[in-house]
Amino acid sequence: MSDGASLGYTGDPNLFRSLPMGIFRLSAKGAWELIAELTPSESHGEAIELSQNVSCTLGNACLITDANPSACALLHIENPGTIAMAPVASVFPEDTLRLFADGLYRLFQGQKAIAYDGSLTIAGGGEHQVAFNLWQGESDVSPDDVYLSFWSISERISLEQTKDGLQSDLARSARISLLGEMTASIAHEVNQPLGTIVASAEAGLRWLSRDEPDIAEVQQLLERIAKNGKRAAGVITTMRALASNKKSERLPADINSVVEEAILLLRTDLAKRQITLRLDLSSNLPSVKADKTQILQVIVNLALNAAQAMSDGHAWNRTLCIRTRRGIADVAVEVEDSGPGIDAHVRERLFESFFSTKETGIGMGLAICRSIIEAHGSQIELQSTPHLGARFSFALPTEQVQTDG
Questions:
Q1: Which strands, in side-by-side order, build the sheet including 127-136?
Q2: CB contact at 8 A, 299 and 322
Q3: CB 319, CB 275: distance < 8 Å
Q4: Rounded to a whole number, what is the largest CA-CA distance in the chain?
Q5: Smallest Cα–Cα separation from 393: which of 401, 383, 403, 404?
Q6: Distance between CA 97 and CA 103 in Å, rounded?
Q7: Half-sphere exposure of residue 236, counting CA atoms within 13 Å on the CB side?
């Protein structure tokens, strides 16, 4: 490789060698010729769709004419001569090669510099996550030279993964805490159908033990057993989902079904607090793409907070309304109560971590809810009127909108 070649943006070969980031000098003459051969509508349009074959061809047409020591170190290359005049495609995995080809095409269109994240193939196997910058040399000095700089982002990715892991653990802890608060209600909600199952089975045995068994009566009892078995199973399934530590997945979900699962956990608690539940669920709603367990956690938390507010505030008309409705490009969920409302000074801090209006509260429930909804690209909105109640709402983009977008 030539040590005397100039670095396009500085003209200083010593700087090229000493920079702590990896840098390739590439000869893109063959790539420019290939791009120029594209049809006029493709080569002069604002963008083209580069197939994998075209990306490979452009990557193979760009030759590495120089690499600084930092580049060799990142690639674990002991002898720089091993990549002299090698195609740059040889150090890219398939997905990063597409990004490079797209950047090269945009340089051809006149864009000054391209930045993107990707990975490099390490000598001997494996990949290294890096951030790239791609730019063209000075046109009057080296019109065919292209420079590609890169530096490791493994530490940044590790920190982001650690942050995501901590947020996931915190959300799970909040769910476990929520289940702890509702233990008595859940136990009652499970025991009630189990008790009905036992009673129905015993009655069915008595009807069968008669000299003339009443088959019609036994059939009704079996249907009641099946119904209550499904009810108990539904509660347990919902509990397991809330207690699980699965990785967050955004999948198509029926928001009305999520609300109904929340009611399975809340029904006994609402009855104990003498709260009337009103469901206003719009029919034929499109699916939303969401983490079902996380959205279930939000709805249960908002509803339970509303129930506690009405119970603690001595509201005379205790009504909880959970509403779903379709927007232009989303589906909205509203949780509305008829409690005392929320004071203005409390509203300012309501979603802060570790702020709670409950004597035994840790102040993480609403903070976690806000974090979950923001991660889904939305916000929790609050409307409150003194002595007339509060309404929390959020909207989730429909699956079709997200797919098209």
A1: 63-67, 22-27, 145-152, 127-136, 113-121
A2: yes
A3: yes
A4: 108
A5: 383
A6: 10
A7: 10
| Topology (CATH) of 13-152 | Beta-Lactamase (3.30.450)
The set of residues, in sequence order, having a beta carbon less than 8 Å from that of 220 and lying 6+ positions away, is none
pTM beyond 0.70, yes or no: no
For the domain made up of 160-404, the CATH class stated in words is alpha beta
- Please state the three-class secondary structure of the chain as a single string: CCCCCCCCCCCCHHHHHHCCCEEEEEECHHHHHHHHCCCHHHHCCCCCCCCHHHHHHHHHHCEEEEECHHHHHHCCCCCHHHHCCCEHHHHCCHHHHHHHHHHHHHHHCCCCEEEEEEEEECCCCCEEEEEEEEEECCCCCCCCEEEEEEEECHHHHHHHHHHHHHHHHHHHHHHHHHHHHCHHHHHHHHHHHHHHHHHHHHHHHHHHHCCCCCHHHHHHHHHHHHHHHHHHHHHHHHHHHHHCCCCCCCEEECHHHHHHHHHHHHHHHHHHCCCEEEEEECCCCCCEEECHHHHHHHHHHHHHHHHHHHHHCCCCCCEEEEEEEECCCEEEEEEEECCCCCCHHHHCCCCCCCCCCCCCCCCCHHHHHHHHHHHCCCCCEEEEECCCEEEEEEEEEEHHHHHHC
Place of tokens 């206003």: 280
pLDDT of residue 45: 46
Report pLDDT digits (tens) over 154-185: 766 665 666 566 556 656 666 676 676 667 66
**Phi and psi (nearest 5°) for 154?**
-60, -40
Structure confidence at residue 30 (pLDDT): 85
What are the structural domain ranges in the chain? 13-152, 160-404
pLDDT value, residue 322 = 95
